[in-house]
């Protein structure tokens, strides 16, 4: 097969995607020219997504194709979608119209198969795919003191679970697997199931089918129903059908696909005259427990040189990686500081110490913290570029103990979403305060924040049960209710004009009516009654009793240095590039990263052993590969004492507090 692109086409893609004077490396040019089905492996910061975007830019310039086909681009998140829109502007519109598809794998499967399956089996439309929403329904569906209730109560008593009985029952209903072929219900990770004709099995089936008839599915059930439908409709050759629709299929972040998603992709893609190319890094597979599919793939095309970080950080990653990765190397043109290990006794001293380090680190004569603040101010998505991250976030208590660590141990107010006043009072007036010198951007940011905080007060969350932020709300509307994102932007523009005229009460009235009667009808159903929504809009200027100063949630502001640090989970920052990252060690079932990965922190090349070690290794690999210039690692003094200090200091600068 001929090359995918000519040198002239690649040169054009460089001008569109890369900074002036920058060029694709030979390895990337080779991948761009590759025109057969293939799997491409790329290390963190290698420019993998940009390389994929180059192929898409080239194809966009050729559209429409002579044979009437299009392309299908599937992502795990919307990073590539947002990136292509940002780089191409209106020229990207052709990629989002028929016969093309550009979206998440989940959206694709639901659109092409799950909706059809639900109508075929239950004559209903797909209304909601969400584990948390289904969990709310399932929690109340099991008949009290019925056969299933007694069965699960007996299992609960024997399991010594820390969950309450009600939570245990709800979790069982959420995670159990219904085998429609063999007519059995299997508890999570169990090979022993309940037959459909048994009383417990029959009750599970009835509850599940009742939800299905309402169009409510968990994520896994949606995929399983789609796969079952594909396998049942033997009269249709889906590989042929989709090959006739899409000439190329590109799958980004392939390592984050679950085994079920892999099975679906293998079932529907790869027909005659269709090129399927995947892009990913199996070392960064952290969203699914099993990565057997990823490890089974033979990767012959790889990019092992990172453009993100320098050699000091690359050296740490070679030790942490789940495999021997001597080919991983940093960029000699990127100035990366020697990684710093912060040894602490009290978790509350860690973020101030990180801020102090940032304040003292200069890059080309300017504080790294100031560079980060400037980038944040210019960034349209209002992202932060200095972050403190951790694996576990759910314990919810401040502790000096190394065995009870989570993100909230370091930053107790973690997960207070949105813009919150010091006394935790949230009112519309807090977002309508003006000093007279604000620009349109500041007005837009405040009004968008007001919308998402109001949705939170109404109990509205996204498909994953998470609270919306301004970016995720617009993305959701763009995908699920095309045109509504434009309408909301128009509303915000109108409210900006009202705010300039000091018509704040009019804004409050209009926003409340628009959300309650219009926008919320296009969003997932409310988990709550919505009683907080009127309270949010009730207070006018001066009535909320809130302090004038407001702070963004999950952002630690250090008063001594003026440094802002966003606090997040490792999963939340996957795919991001930071100027500096603090990795805060946490405890997973009582063991911290330094206890599990002792040898790796001492600089020895990691040798895969137990699955738990492999999981922690991937988590650390993802988290530690985010920064461009500075990586810090926070470790409890007790755990540091168990390391070989001489070995540690060969790769880390150690600072004790």
Describe this structure in words.
- The chain is α/β, with parallel strands linked by helices and 657 residues long.
- The chain folds into four domains: 7-110 and 235-303, 3-Layer(aba) Sandwich (Rossmann fold); 128-214; 311-414 and 554-656, Rossmann fold; 421-548, no CATH class.
- It is 43% helix and 15% strand.
- The chain contains 27 helices and 24 strands.
- The strands form seven sheets. It has a seven-stranded mixed sheet, with helices on both faces. The chain has a six-stranded parallel sheet with strand order 3-2-9-10-1-11.
- The longest helix has 18 residues, at 105-122.
- The N and C termini lie far apart (61 Å).
- Residues 285-299, 395-402, 416-425, 527-532 and 539-552 have low confidence and may be disordered.
């Amino acid at each position: 097969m001929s090359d995918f692109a000519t040198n002239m086409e690649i040169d054009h893609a460089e001008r569109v995607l890369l900074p002036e004077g920058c060029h694709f490396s030979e390895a990337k040019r080779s991948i761009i020219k590759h025109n057969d089905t293939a799997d491409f492996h790329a290390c963190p910061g290698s420019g993998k997504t940009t390389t994929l975007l180059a192929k898409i830019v080239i194809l966009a310039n050729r559209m429409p194709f002579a044979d009437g086909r299009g392309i299908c681009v599937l992502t795990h998140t919307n990073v590539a979608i947002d990136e292509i829109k940002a780089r191409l502007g209106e020229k990207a519109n052709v990629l989002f119209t028929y016969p093309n598809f550009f979206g998440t794998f989940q959206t694709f499967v639901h659109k092409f198969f799950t909706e059809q399956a639900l109508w075929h089996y239950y004559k209903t439309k797909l209304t909601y795919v969400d584990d948390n929403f289904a969990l709310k329904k399932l929690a109340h569906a099991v008949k009290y003191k019925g056969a299933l209730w007694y069965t699960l109560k007996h299992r609960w008593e024997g399991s010594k679970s820390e969950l309450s009985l009600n939570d245990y029952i709800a979790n069982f209903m959420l995670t159990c697997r219904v085998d429609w072929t063999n007519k059995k219900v299997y508890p999570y990770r169990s090979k022993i199931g309940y037959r459909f004709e048994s009383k417990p099995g029959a009750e599970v089936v009835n509850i599940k089918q009742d939800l299905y008839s309402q169009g409510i599915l968990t994520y896994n059930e949606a995929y399983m129903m789609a796969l079952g439908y594909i396998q049942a409709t033997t009269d249709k050759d889906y590989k042929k059908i989709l090959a006739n629709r899409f000439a190329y299929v590109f799958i980004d972040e392939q390592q984050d696909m679950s085994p079920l998603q892999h099975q679906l992709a293998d079932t529907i893609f790869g027909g005659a005259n269709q090129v399927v190319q995947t892009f990913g890094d199996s070392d960064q597979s952290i969203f699914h427990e099993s990565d057997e599919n990823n490890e089974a793939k033979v990767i012959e095309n790889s990019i092992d040189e990172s453009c993100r970080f320098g050699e000091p950080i690359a050296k740490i990653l070679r030790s942490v990686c789940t495999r021997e990765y001597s080919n991983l190397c940093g960029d000699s043109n990127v100035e990366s500081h020697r990684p710093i290990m912060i040894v602490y006794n009290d978790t509350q001293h860690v973020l101030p110490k990180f801020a102090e380090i940032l304040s003292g680190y200069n890059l080309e004569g300017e504080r790294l913290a100031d560079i980060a603040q400037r980038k944040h101010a210019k960034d349209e998505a209002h992202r932060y570029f200095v972050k403190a991250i951790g694996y576990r976030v759910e314990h919810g208590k401040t502790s000096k103990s190394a065995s009870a660590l989570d993100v909230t141990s370091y930053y107790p107010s973690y997960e207070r979403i949105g813009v919150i006043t010091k006394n935790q009072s949230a009112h519309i007036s807090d977002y309508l305060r003006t000093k007279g010198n604000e620009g349109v951007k500041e007005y837009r940011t405040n009004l968008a924040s007001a919308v998402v905080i109001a949705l939170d007060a109404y109990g509205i969350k996204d498909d994953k049960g998470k609270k919306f932020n301004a970016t995720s709300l617009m993305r959701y509307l763009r995908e699920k209710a095309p045109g509504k994102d434009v309408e909301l932007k128009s509303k915000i523009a109108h409210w900006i004009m009202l705010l300039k005229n000091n018509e704040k009460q009019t804004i409050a009235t209009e926003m409340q009516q628009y959300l309650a009667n219009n926008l919320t009808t296009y969003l997932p159903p409310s988990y709550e009654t919505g009683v907080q929504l009127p309270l949010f809009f009730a207070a006018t200027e001066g009535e909320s009793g809130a302090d004038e100063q407001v702070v963004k949630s999950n952002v630690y502001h250090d008063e001594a240095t003026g440094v802002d640090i966003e606090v997040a989970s490792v999963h939340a920052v996957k795919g991001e590039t930071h100027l500096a990252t603090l990795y805060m060690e946490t405890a997973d079932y009582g063991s911290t990263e330094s206890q599990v990965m002792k040898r790796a922190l001492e600089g020895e090349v990691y040798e895969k052993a137990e699955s738990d070690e492999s999981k922690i290794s991937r988590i650390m690999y993802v988290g530690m590969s985010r920064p461009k210039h500075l990586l810090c690692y926070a470790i409890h003094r007790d755990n540091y004492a168990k390391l070989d200090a001489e070995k540690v200091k060969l790769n880390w600068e150690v600072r004790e507090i």
